[in-house]
Request: fold
Amino acid sequence: MKRVIFFLILLPLLAVHSCKQPAKQEVSAENRMQWWTDAKFGLFIHWGVYAVPAGVYKEVQIKNIGEWIMNRGKIPVAEYREFAKQFNPVKYDPEAWVKLAKEAGMKYLVITSKHHDGFALFDSKVTDWDVVDATPYGKDLLTPLAEACKKEGIKLGFYYSQAQDWTHPGGAAARRPAVEGWANPDSAAIDAYTKEHRGHWDPAQEGSMDDYLDKIAVPQVKEILENYGGLDILWWDTPTDMNKERAEKFLPLLANHPNLITNNRLGGGYQGDTETPEQYIPSTGFPDRHWEVCMTMNDTWGFKSWDHDWKSTNDLILKLSDIVSKGGNFLLNVGPTAEGEIPQPSIERLKEVGQWMKVNGEAIYGTQASPFAWLPWGKATLKGQNLYLHVVTWPADGKLKLPLTNKITGVTLLADPGFKSEVSQSEGYAVITLPTQSSDQWLPVIKLDIEGTPAVVSPVSSGKPGAASSVDASASIAHLFDGDPLNTWKPVAGENKAWIEVDLGEEMPVANFSISEPWKPWDRKRQDFELRVKDKEGKWVTVISGKTRGSGHSADFEPVNGRYFRLDLAGPNGEVPVVNEWVLNRAL
Ligand code: FHN
Reply:
């Protein structure tokens, strides 16, 4: 294989962890986003007719996420519409939902006004496939929710599936093999049909996508933007079959709502305001972009009666801390039942996260990303002269080491106001002496008062020269070390096994690596990796190996000394490997 070496101009200012606000956007855009960046934590609500089958069709548990049951089960339109007759959320209490979000410490919520099944939770004048016309409940569900949000001071967002619509003729349908849902006896015939019909499985879905957009999607977006007292967020989803021209149909509506925040899922190349990593926490933040991780509390967005795979409260708190320490927001989902109840396990977890937020919320709200690229024991956030240390692994010897030279003038444990600590500072480090056990049931947070602004400690690989087995013409090796996980390195076509290398400039102890992988929620791919270090004899010695998560990967290891590191990669299913960012961090 041909070796290609590129020497990079050092990019110190593009270090991975910037604690500055995004720079590329206009000042007015910053003002518009301010409440959102300060808020950090929001509630996602996936609710619709799919809560009636709740993951079961023809007495079979349909695989995958609950709100996709119509597509995964290949349920004909007329049959699916019958479920609406059982959608009667008499226990719906919008005020209680909003109060629950508030109790959890959330500052905004986003609800599915219409998901891919095309069913609207509002009274739409352009269809009868909505809660008012098609269900025994017969009342708009979003009006009282909007009122409750206003009353409780919670910002309001509506999710709207602009492209996929499996009920209105012409709507898009992502093509999924029938067997991925269940052992459907008609799989072969259905798959042959979906192949010829843009993913549709029922002739009732046929029609022109442009007509669907003009007659259903665009008018409905106008309805939701105008009828609920003004939205704070419009959350697009899955731009299946969208192009620039189709996306532009929505733009005049958006222009009338200058404060509206939108995401990057409209399609047609429109970036919107936010990146939306789904079901994973990116290895690094996104410089110059706002971003929000959306995540389920179990394994489904829409209610499924048989999904009991709940994340623990502690796990949810750690995720919130991790996301916020990288400069992002966390949009955490609940999937209410067809009767209108948020599942009890979700309620319990939200209340417990709220207890933690009551004590530790100041380490979350209004903070900036950690100035440290990596800390072996946890995470950090920054707000003015306060540095918040989120101590995931409490030090057994009671000594917490931090690469900080700023003078520390105060130390507080947020969960224990009586806590006393000593601080010593020398040789570029601060050591904080802690009691040998934490007094917080969940994630303890230590607040430091510091003088001045902490220096950003970038990964030791930032802006360093790299090499690779080859580089595709569309990519660049510089992308690996520029701090931007939205651009890519990949080898030339056909090279399923490839390597990348970095020269750190001098020998040093390294104890953590991470990579960012390209992401779309619908094509996550795992890659084989082997991290190696060059030893004194020039031999490559394995440090750690395994499979990536397919959405980025990060690992700590016993410190290894080295100057040259190499990452061997193999792409999934014979494809070329792809990496957007490769980070090495120095041991503390
Ligand atoms: O297909 C949807 C899915 O049902 C869910 O709504 C998530 C939430 O982000 N978005 C899509 C997949 O990316």
Remarks:
- The mean pLDDT is 93.
- Residues 209-226 form the longest helix (18 residues).
- Residues 286 and 484 are 6 Å apart (CA to CA).
- The radius of gyration is 25 Å.
